[in-house]
Amino acid sequence: SSGILEKQSNNIQGTQLKYTPASDAISPNKDHRKYYLYHYTSLDTKEPVRIPLRDVDHFIVGRDASVCDIVPKHSSVSKQHAAIQFRKVGSAIRPYVIDLESINGTYLNENEKELPVARFVELINGDVLRFGDYEGEFVVV
């Protein structure tokens, strides 16, 4: 397919998507394991919101609710900030995160290390993701 056709197919309601799924993308349903993100906010003491990660091979994180699956409401989160992508590695299905050239960065775990831009980083059980300066945290389970 031509680049123009691909660009046209990679938009939702006229909004150009910054992310195209990896060539080895696969839904986590294929191995019957259940993946969740637990969204903890520092603004309240309620139970975390459990976000099931299933049925599709990737989830876009960002402020633009018209194209994103997970929408942290904070000005430092880019409209299309990051993606969580499930990929087939050998016989296993593994979750990865990729920063979509966000302005304020994507962070993994306590060391507050900013992830490299536009590179997949594998996620493991218990990893904590933060997006920009948003105080909420997302725990991978």
From TrEMBL:
<dbReference type="GO" id="GO:0006406">
    <property type="term" value="P:mRNA export from nucleus"/>
</dbReference>
<feature type="domain" description="FHA">
    <location>
        <begin position="59"/>
        <end position="113"/>
    </location>
</feature>
<dbReference type="InterPro" id="IPR008984">
    <property type="entry name" value="SMAD_FHA_dom_sf"/>
</dbReference>
<protein>
    <recommendedName>
        <fullName>FHA domain-containing protein</fullName>
    </recommendedName>
</protein>
<dbReference type="InterPro" id="IPR050923">
    <property type="entry name" value="Cell_Proc_Reg/RNA_Proc"/>
</dbReference>
<dbReference type="GO" id="GO:0051237">
    <property type="term" value="P:maintenance of RNA location"/>
</dbReference>
<dbReference type="GO" id="GO:0000398">
    <property type="term" value="P:mRNA splicing, via spliceosome"/>
</dbReference>
<dbReference type="GO" id="GO:0070274">
    <property type="term" value="C:RES complex"/>
</dbReference>
<dbReference type="InterPro" id="IPR000253">
    <property type="entry name" value="FHA_dom"/>
</dbReference>
<dbReference type="Pfam" id="PF00498">
    <property type="entry name" value="FHA"/>
</dbReference>
